[in-house]
Design brief:
The chain has 17 helices and no strands. By secondary structure, the chain is mainly alpha-helical. The longest helix is centred in the first third of the chain and has 15 residues, at 8-22.
C-alpha cells in the first residue's frame, strides 16, 4: 500500500488496535481503528483491518463495506483479494472472480490471488481455466497442498494419469490424507497397467481404514500373473460375478475379484465404481 505520512497519534491507535486484535478484543480494536481513521481519513490499512475483523466476526456486509471504502483510497491487490473472498464465501462466484482477476492483474505472482481465481473457476466447473491458475500457483510454490490436490483431481478426470502422478508426487510426504493420496495413486496405476503398484497403493489406502483389513490382506495376492491363472474364462467369470452382485449378498472377496476382472478387461471405470461402492 502506498506510503503516506500519518500522524503519530493515528499510528499509535493503529498499533494499539493490532494488539487488541491479537488478544481477541475485537470491539475495542474496532474503536481504536475508527479513532485512527477520524484523525487520518485515508488510513487504508485501518479500513482493511476493520474489514478483516468484521469478516472474522461473520459480518460479511460490514466487511464488504469497509473493503470498498479502502478501495476508494487505493485499489490495492490485497484488499481486492479480501473483497473477493467475501463474495466467494457467499458463493457469489462471478462477483468474486471479478475482484480476483483485478487482483492478479495488479500483482501477477500473488499466490493467494491465483489460488482463489483457480478455486473460483473450479466451482464454476470451468476446469480448463481452473487448471491455468492453479498451475501458476504450483510454479510459485511447487508443494502448495490444495492446488496439488485440485490439479490431481482435474487431470485424473481428464485421464491424464501421468500428470496426476506428478501432482501427487509433489505432496506425497506432506499430506495427512493418505486415503486420498494412495487411492489416486492406485487408480492411476490401474489405468497405466502397472498392477503391482496399483495394489501396493490401494493397500496403503486401506490400511488407513481399519475396517478394510480383510480387503487389505486379499489385495496382497493380486499380482497380474496370479490373477490370470485364477481367472480362466474372463467373460464367463465376469458374467457369473455380476449375477452374484445383482441377486445375492456379495462378500468382500467377491467385490475385490470382480473389480480386478474389470481391470484386466480394461473397464477401469467399472472397477473404480465397484471398489468405491463397497467403501460406501
Amino acid at each position: 500500500m502506498k506510503t503516506t505520512i500519518v500522524s503519530t497519534e493515528a499510528v499509535s491507535l493503529y498499533n494499539s488496535a493490532l494488539t487488541l486484535t491479537s488478544r481477541g478484543e475485537y470491539y475495542d480494536a474496532l474503536n481504536a481503528y475508527r479513532r485512527a481513521i477520524d484523525i487520518y481519513p485515508k488510513f487504508i490499512e485501518a479500513y482493511n483491518n476493520i474489514g478483516e475483523i468484521y469478516s472474522q466476526l461473520g459480518d460479511s456486509s460490514h466487511a464488504i463495506s469497509m473493503y470498498m471504502q479502502a478501495l476508494d483510497i487505493e485499489r490495492h491487490y490485497k484488499i481486492l483479494l479480501n473483497l473477493g473472498v467475501e463474495y466467494y464465501n457467499r458463493r457469489d462466484y462471478q462477483t468474486a472472480l471479478k475482484y480476483f482477476i483485478e487482483c492478479i492483474m495488479l500483482e501477477s505472482d500473488f499466490l493467494e490471488g491465483n489460488f482463489y481465481t483457480g478455486m473460483t473457476y473450479f466451482n464454476l466447473q470451468d476446469l480448463s481455466m481452473a487448471e491455468q491458475y492453479l498451475v501458476k500457483v504450483i510454479s510459485i510454490d511447487r508443494r502448495h497442498l490444495k492446488s496439488n490436490y485440485l490439479l490431481s483431481y482435474i487431470n485424473y478426470e481428464w485421464k491424464r494419469y501421468d500428470a496426476t502422478l506428478t501432482y501427487l508426487d509433489n505432496i506425497r510426504d506432506i499430506t495427512d490424507d493418505k486415503i486420498f493420496l494412495n487411492k489416486y495413486y492406485g487408480f492411476c496405476y490401474y489405468h497405466l497397467g502397472r498392477f503391482d503398484e496399483a495394489v501396493e497403493h490401494l493397500q496403503i489406502a486401506l490400511e488407513s481404514s481399519p475396517r478394510y483389513g480383510k480387503f487389505k490382506r486379499y489385495l496382497k495376492t493380486l499380482t497380474y500373473e496370479y490373477k490370470l491363472r485364477e481367472i480362466g474364462d474372463l467373460e464367463a467369470t465376469i458374467q457369473e460375478m455380476e449375477e452374484v452382485m445383482m441377486t445375492g449378498k456379495p462378500s468382500l472377496q467377491e467385490y475385490t475379484k470382480l473389480s480386478m476382472l474389470y481391470i484386466f478387461k480394461g473397464e477401469y471405470k467399472k472397477a473404480e465404481d465397484l471398489l468405491l461402492s463397497y467403501k460406501r
